[in-house]
Each structure stands twice: as C-alpha cells, then as structure tokens.
Amino acid sequence: MEYMDRSASFLRPYLVRDAARRTMPLGLLGLMLGGSVIKEWAPLPETYMSNKRNLINMYFVKVAWAWTLCLLLPFIGIATYHVTRSVAVVVRRLSALLVGTAIWYSCTGVFLYIENLTGSCYKSAAFDVPLEEHPNKIQCLKAGGFWNGFDISGHSFLLSYCALITIEEMAVLHIVNISKNSRLHSVVNGFFLGLSFLTMMWLWMFFTTAVYFHNFPQKLFGTLAGLLAWYGTYKYWYLTPLSPGLPPERTSWSSRKSNRSL
C-alpha cells in the first residue's frame, strides 16, 4: 500500500497537470517523426520488439481499446460520482466511451476500405505476379496471397487516441482529494496507476511502431486520425450541451463543489 501511494504521488504531477494535456499531441507527433527518421536513415537492428508477434503487441496493443475501456469505465464512474453525486452525470460521462468505441470502429473500417481501394493482390511478397481474381485484402490473404495497398497505421491511430483520452479523463484527479484514511483510497490509486501504466505502454509501442513498421505517410495519416478524433471530441464537441461533456475538473463542478476526500 505504501509503495502504491508513493508511486501515485510521483506520477500525478506529470500526468494530471494541464501541461500533460497540452504537450501530449506535440509529443506524439515528435515520437512519430523521430521514429520515422530512425527507420529511414538509421534503422535499428532487428529485436524482439520488431517482431509483430511479440507478447506486448499480441496481448496488449491489438486489444488496446479493450484494455483502455476496462480501466476507464470504472475510473470515470467512481471519480465522477464522487465529485458530482449525480448518477445522470455519471451515465452521461460514461457515454464518452461509447463515442470512443464508435470512433475506433469507424476509423478501422475506413482504413480497411482505403487499403482495399488502393491495393492489389500478388502471389508473393515481391509484388511481381498479380492475382486479379482476389479483389480485396481478406480474400487475398485467405488465398495465401500478399496484399499491397495504402495501409494507414491502425497502431499509430489507436495508440495515440488511447493515450490522449486517458490523459484527458485523469484530469478529474485535480479536484479529488485522495485521503489515506478513505475506503476508496486504494481503489482510486489502483485505477490511476493502471491507467498510467497503460499510457506509458501505449507511448512506448507508438514509438516502436514508428521505428519498425509502416512507411512515413501511413504513420502520419494514422497519427493525424488519432489527433483529429481527440480534438473533435474533447476540444470541440464535448464543450457543447448535447454531448457526453468533459470530466468534472473541466466544468462548472470545479467551482460548485469543494474538494472531497476519498
């Protein structure tokens, strides 16, 4: 318990501050650009992380949205109810996760559509013998072929989007005074540390993607899609009344409620 307290106290100034939300978009662009430069001009030797079947990629990144949902859902529910004491506000705020799921599903579909629209099936990875009888990627791969199209980086999109919305949601801790004598103290700290761990992992795997996979345009479009999805919701739509709204720290609750002790 003491170790958890120290860890949460150490991370909160870095991940809950307004500065974290302001710098995260530029930081993601910097990681993508830096990793792409390394990949093109000073490629790193093959490592465990350059293998797409590494355990982190298989069991965390490929289901990154599920991991993010599993931790954000209870965290948003507990923190929002503690600040607002309103079930209606909690339900409204949790609907942001439905919006995020719809964005994830829609973008994945659009990326696949673009890859199908711009690609062709080939007999080998050399892309020299076309297999015109397979008009889309799924049919091509099932037939043992190799599809060559504009493959927008889904990793760059999803990892950047997950990191950005997690940082936004953790901002509620600005007005949650976590008392060590509280029954929910360890619960909130546990979720915060879990979300912090995921954020660090998403950033690391985002950089790994930039260093080892895809070409620059594919990573650029994927990252811009993640940034646009975040900006269009948290910086635009969620400021309007007919929306899930922002975390309580960003709304009038911060002026109407005094700090509560968990």
What does this structure look like?
This protein has helices at 2-15, 18-41, 55-59, 64-84, 87-118, 137-142, 154-169, 185-212, 216-234, 253-256; strands spanning 120-122, 146-148, 176-177, 260-261. The protein has a two-stranded antiparallel ribbon with strand order 1-2. It is mainly alpha-helical. It is 65% helix and 4% strand. Helix 2 (18-41) packs antiparallel against helix 7 (154-169) and helix 4 runs antiparallel to helix 5. Residues 251-262 have low confidence and may be disordered.
In a nutshell, what does this entry contain?
This protein has 262 residues and is mainly alpha-helical. Helix content is 65%, strand content 4%.
Annotation keywords:
disordered C terminus; single chain; mainly alpha; 262 residues; two-stranded antiparallel ribbon; 4 strands; two-stranded parallel ribbon
